[in-house]
Amino acid sequence: MAFISIGSNLGDREGNCRRSLSMIGAMGIKVRAVSRAYETRPWGMTDQPDFINMAAELETDMPPEVLHAKLHEIEDMMGRVRKEKWGPRIIDLDLLLYDDVVINMPGFTIPHPSIPEREFVLAPLAEIAPDVLHPVLKKTARELLENLKRAG
Q1: What is the pLDDT of residue 138?
Q2: What CATH code is carried by the domain that includes residue 95?
Q3: Residue numbers of the domain that contains 19
Q4: pLDDT tens, 21-61?
Q5: Is-catalytic flag, 47?
Q6: How many separate domains does the chain show?
């Protein structure tokens, strides 16, 4: 099982998110659950349009590195341009969790390092998988979201 975060703030934001899910399915990856669409303020670089964010649970036999590469391939096929960090984007697909795997390599880290500090990631993730455990922090998505809300 893998969990991804999906976001878009250009064009048909929700349509972009749903199109990326169709493309994931067309690659032979089973989409097991999808959160509702959350409209969220930009994070990091705030002078840009609001985002639609979602989370999805995927089932695949692909190793995490291959799945990560496939997600980037979909972003490229959809026209994502990487000009500036946290800038506007037609689609953003982040691999959040992959079973209980922990990987820390340049350019590729699982679990995604920003999960605990981003409500726009945790709210959709907790909706579809409240009890999924962060393999490093040993807290569930629900607990991480509650902790973030209390701190904020």
Answers
A1: 97
A2: 3.30.70.560
A3: 2-151
A4: 999 999 999 999 999 999 998 877 778 899 999 999 999 99
A5: no
A6: 1
